[in-house]
Amino acid sequence: MNDERAIVNISIKRTAPAFQVGKTGQTLFGTDQSNPWGSMRHAFWPRCKAEGSVVIQDGTIDFTDAHAMYVYALQGMKPHHLAARWNFCIFMSPSISVSMMEFTTPPSYGNTTVNVGSISRDGEIVSANASGTFVHTKSVIDPKTAWPEPTAVKVTWTGKTKDGKDVEAVVEGDLGPRSDRVDIMHEVPGFLKQLVASAVGTKPYIYMVSQGDGDVDAFLLSSDAMHDPWLCETGARMLTKPFFLSCSTMPGRHSLCG
């Protein structure tokens, strides 16, 4: 990607198998799965190596033998109809990667939570499923947006290996200062942004926290699935929390099929 404010030249190499949940990786919206009102598909490369650089006005950021994750997302409906809020967590260490994506649908689709997470290491997916949990253990109201900004989280992955052995991972703790707060409608003129927010309730922001190597621990709790019965890994964590709030314009009773 080239832009006058940034020149991005990064290559991603997959080091663990790809995965998706279900046969198609799709979340279907509506009362009839054979004829959905909308859909979204996700597929994941949960553990990768990144090489390259990003050149910005302040200098060059080099990526040498860095860990990465790659997500394929194909959206088949308007974003504010698809989800009211999202949670993302990525934890990378020298030997383990854990990641989780979670979104909650708006009331028109029953405030349904969809969660996809994985535990992986080089050459292997230890576990991947749709049964994780993402809890904000502490939050404060952001005076600028009036959204509850999380300040501490507990993210839990629970599943089984391909051999049927139990495995669990937990990333827990205070988040520290946010690294960014992104106003998705920043480029929209202020009067129009206020009009949209008051008319349909759309007020999208993304809160981001990024912590470097050694700032956070992930605990893999399993005496069966991993070589170490209680493995504590130190690594880097990145979390994002987007908020989308909208009023439904679709009449009738709606449900989520998946």
The string of secondary-structure elements, in order, is: EEEEEHEEEEEEEEHEEE
Biggest sheet architecture: 10 strands, antiparallel
Content-based structural category: mainly beta
Arithmetic mean of pLDDT: 78
Q: Indicate the proportion of strand residues.
A: over 45%
Distance between the termini: 34 Å
Determine Rg (CA atoms, Å): 19 Å
CATH superfamily: AttH-like domain
Could you say what the CATH architecture is? Beta Barrel
Low-confidence stretches: 217-232, 243-258
Strand segment tally: 16
Q: Outline, from the CA principal axes? A: globular
Q: What portion of residues is helical? A: under 10%
User: How many helix segments?
Assistant: 2
Number of domains: 1
CATH domain topology: AttH-like fold
For the record, what CATH class applies? Mainly Beta
Keywords:
mainly beta; globular; 2 helices; 258 residues; ten-stranded antiparallel β-sheet; six-stranded antiparallel β-sheet; AttH-like fold
Walkthrough of the structure:
The protein is mostly beta strands and 258 residues long. It has a single domain (2-246), classed as Beta Barrel (AttH-like fold), CATH 2.40.370.10. Helix content is 6%, strand content 58%. The chain has two helices and 16 strands. The protein has helices at residues 79-82, 190-200; strands spanning 2-3, 6-14, 26-29, 38-56, 59-75, 85-92, 97-104, 113-121, 124-129, 133-141, 148-160, 166-174, 180-183, 205-221, 230-243, 256-257. Strands 6, 7, 8, 9, 10, 11, 12, 13, 14 and 15 form a ten-stranded antiparallel sheet that branches. Strands 1, 2, 3, 4, 5 and 16 form a six-stranded antiparallel sheet that branches. Strand 6 (85-92) and strand 7 form a beta hairpin. The longest helix is centred in the last third of the chain and has 11 residues, at 190-200. It is globular, with a radius of gyration of 19 Å. The model is unreliable at 217-232 and 243-258 (pLDDT under 50).
